[in-house]
């Protein structure tokens, strides 16, 4: 397997703690922008991005919206238990679960689990001028996390209301601080629409509505997808060899309109590494349709693309998806991916990448190394020498192999 000889220690670098941006820059578009273009490295400000883009480019945004996914319960003893809603369990559909008004079940991570000894915990919360009693009940343990059933006593309140009013923003753990009210706005892209992510597509945090207008006025095409970014995006690689790491799964929705635009545009610019995973997975889903005529399992597992022939043209692969949607009279494709992109991967769709600077020894850094090769070291060395800020609230880059 391609990853058998990939040692994660080869994708390490020294990241001083003071280079991790604990808070965002004063203005979204004021962050630094590193430009890597065929080996040349220099930098500007993010508001200069339109100068780097071409009229032939198609920028793809992830419009998923970060939910206030952390709920804190207090026991009568004063002990604090935090429940982090990771993804819907029942109903499994994001839109449907947010509309529930009595109960729902989520796949959750639990903070201070040892203090939760009873079957359920209860706390009183407020949603606007409405009070409600929220009960959290442990259903079963699963992969070091729990399926939790939430029940509440006010049918005028939806679960979306509960999270919006009682939850807090799930900022990344490496920020090592509590969420603040300002994070509700800044840990959210200006173009976010569909609730469901528990981590922000942070490459998009630098865009403003004014900057997007300037990009459009230059003639650059803009499209969108929905990818519910999971907490697994922060999961460190703990094994020395990447082949032993288990990648997380993320769910996405892609419209027939985007498929058509991807067929027509060859210069695809992905905003974010997680969007890269989605866009590249589309190619392989089209290949699977071509090979197996499968229509019941739109999922890409972690390593399978390294065992499938990638000789099918991108156009033919995407047309397979478009034709499937036409046959099924669907306007969009709902699918999931566990793909891990490592050095040696051959990119099929994405030609340019807008992204922040990632943690040492992370799967996201592996993706960067796959995209621009060993030059990733030059990029990160340049960023460190030129006082770039790192990670989710840090500065940005555009990478053009």
Describe this structure in words.
The chain is α/β, with parallel strands linked by helices and 401 residues long. The protein folds into 2 domains: 8-65 and 185-400, QueA-like (3-Layer(aba) Sandwich); 69-167, no CATH class. 23% of the residues lie in helices and 29% in strands. The chain contains 10 helices and 18 strands. The protein has helices at 49-52, 94-99, 159-166, 183-186, 209-217, 256-264, 273-292, 314-327, 363-372, 376-385, and strands at residues 32-37, 40-45, 57-62, 64-66, 70-74, 80-90, 103-111, 120-127, 130-142, 145-152, 194-197, 221-228, 250-255, 267-271, 299-300, 332-337, 350-356, 396-400. A hairpin with a 2-residue loop joins strand 8 and strand 9 (130-142). Helix 6 runs antiparallel to helix 8 (314-327) and helix 7 (273-292) crosses helix 8 (314-327).
Kindly list the characteristics that best describe this protein:
about 400 residues; alpha/beta; QueA-like; 2 domains; ten-stranded mixed sheet; six-stranded antiparallel sheet
Could you give a quick summary of the protein structure above?
By secondary structure, the protein is an alpha/beta fold.
């Amino acid at each position: 397997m391609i990853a058998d000889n990939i040692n994660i220690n080869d994708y390490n670098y020294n990241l001083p703690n003071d280079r991790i941006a604990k808070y965002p820059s004063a203005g979204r578009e004021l962050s630094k922008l590193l430009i890597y273009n065929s080996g040349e490295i220099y930098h500007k400000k993010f508001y200069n991005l339109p100068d780097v883009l071409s009229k032939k480019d198609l920028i793809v945004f992830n419009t998923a919206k970060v939910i206030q996914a952390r709920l804190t319960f207090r026991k009568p003893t004063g002990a604090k238990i935090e429940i982090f809603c990771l993804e819907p369990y029942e109903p499994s559909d994001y839109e449907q679960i947010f509309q529930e008004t009595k109960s729902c079940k989520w796949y959750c991570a639990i903070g201070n689990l040892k203090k939760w000894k009873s079957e359920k915990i209860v706390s009183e919360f407020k949603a606007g001028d409405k009070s409600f009693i929220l009960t959290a009940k442990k259903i079963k343990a699963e992969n070091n996390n729990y399926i939790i059933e939430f029940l509440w006593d006010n049918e005028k309140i939806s679960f979306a209301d509960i999270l919006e009013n009682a939850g807090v923003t799930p900022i990344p753990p490496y920020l090592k601080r509590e969420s603040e009210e300002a994070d509700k706005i800044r840990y959210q892209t200006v173009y976010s629409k569909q609730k469901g992510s528990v981590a922000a597509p942070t490459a998009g945090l630098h865009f403003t509505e004014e900057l997007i207008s300037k990009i459009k006025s230059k003639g650059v095409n803009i499209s969108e997808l929905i990818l519910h970014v999971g907490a697994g995006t922060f999961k460190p690689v703990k094994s020395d060899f990447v082949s032993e790491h288990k990648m997380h799964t993320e769910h996405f929705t892609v419209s027939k309109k985007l498929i058509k635009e991807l067929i027509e545009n060859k210069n695809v610019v992905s905003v974010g590494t997680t969007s890269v995973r989605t866009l590249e997975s589309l190619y392989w889903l089209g290949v699977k349709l071509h090979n197996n005529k499968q229509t019941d399992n739109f999922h890409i597992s972690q390593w399978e693309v390294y065992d499938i022939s990638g000789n099918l043209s991108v156009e033919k692969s995407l047309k397979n998806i478009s034709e499937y949607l036409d046959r099924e009279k669907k306007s969009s494709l709902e699918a999931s991916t566990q793909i891990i992109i490592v050095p040696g991967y051959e990119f099929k769709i994405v030609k340019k990448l807008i992204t922040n600077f990632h943690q040492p020894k992370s799967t996201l850094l592996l993706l960067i190394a796959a995209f621009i090769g060993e030059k990733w070291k030059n990029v990160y060395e340049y960023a460190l020498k030129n006082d770039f800020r790192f990670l989710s609230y840090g500065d940005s880059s555009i990478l053009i192999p």
